[in-house]
Amino acid sequence: MTQRPTLAVTVGDPVGIGPEITVRTLAEVGAQASARGVVVADPAVLRRAVEVCGLDVRIRAVGSWELPAREEGVIDCFDIGVLGETELEWGRVDERAGAAAVRAIEVATGAAMAGDVSGIVTGPINKEAIWAAGSKHLGHTEMLGELTGVTRQNTMFVVRGKKIFFATRHLSLRTALDQVSEEQQIAQIEEALTALRVFGHDEPRLAVAAINPHGGENGAFGDEEIVHLTPAVERMRATGADVTGPVPADSVFHQLLQGRYDGVLSQYHDQGHIAAKTYDFDGTISVTVGLPILRTSVDHGTAFDIAGQGVADPGTMRSAFLHGAEFSHFADRIRAEYGS
């Protein structure tokens, strides 16, 4: 590996905004960044993105992880050899684009598993495209689980150093609430505490968000806090864990920003997403915890409606890359905790 950590960066769907936000990010951070970014893609995809963005950078194709010296104005691209020079239409679901997205994830993950890179940074994929290409996975998380041999992963949002976890994820609110139980909460609290330790909080402080308004008002507005959340928190505190809650959701994220906690366990998808993205949409990135490799990601879609116009904001990709560079120092901890 090079002296500075190397991150394998995937553009996601090559006809979405991924190529544009990737080249803008790497052109901006330059060769002096604290980590080296190598894009895993077809070089022609990046050259087209450079053109539509009007950037003064050169794409250099590489075929191994024995990388040449870094140069200002040069973006290195590990050639996956899927599309070649074929130009696909911007902003259209295409199985060839899906195949390229899948192959890039496979190559980048393989490099991280082999220790050739310190982690991966992923751009947005299009689920229809990867399914058209034959993938049976719902998305990145499931694909990465199979590639790394992991059956359970979770999501940790990071926004300006603050961390948010999710007790439930992509479910209807009704279904998510049906999944809440004391044992489920204990499992999620333990996973969040483990992730906080892995990512540098040696004595983590976690708050558990309530579900109901005002934390249920002693059962007047719902009894999930009484039946499930409070018993789980009390059991964890009895083990010595620094866990607080349930804290009403209209207060807990403000308290997180004040520094009272290192992380918050939100109870359902939008509870945590709204808080993070309202605070700093472009600064909110996703880290997949539970994998034996570091993976940071943008948390937005392919934006097919503006793809190819050179107007996509690279803020979230920039944040994902910079956090990847920061978290690369925890690569050994990640492998030790989550490796088989």
UniProtKB/TrEMBL annotation:
The keyword Metal-binding applies. Keywords: Metal-binding, NAD, Oxidoreductase. InterPro entries: PdxA_fam (IPR005255). GO terms for molecular function: 4-hydroxythreonine-4-phosphate dehydrogenase activity; metal ion binding; NAD binding. It is an enzyme of class 1 (oxidoreductase). It comes from the Bacteria. Its EC number is 1.1.1.262. The keyword rRNA processing does not apply. Belongs to the PdxA family. PdxA2 subfamily. This is 4-hydroxythreonine-4-phosphate dehydrogenase. It comes from Spinactinospora alkalitolerans.
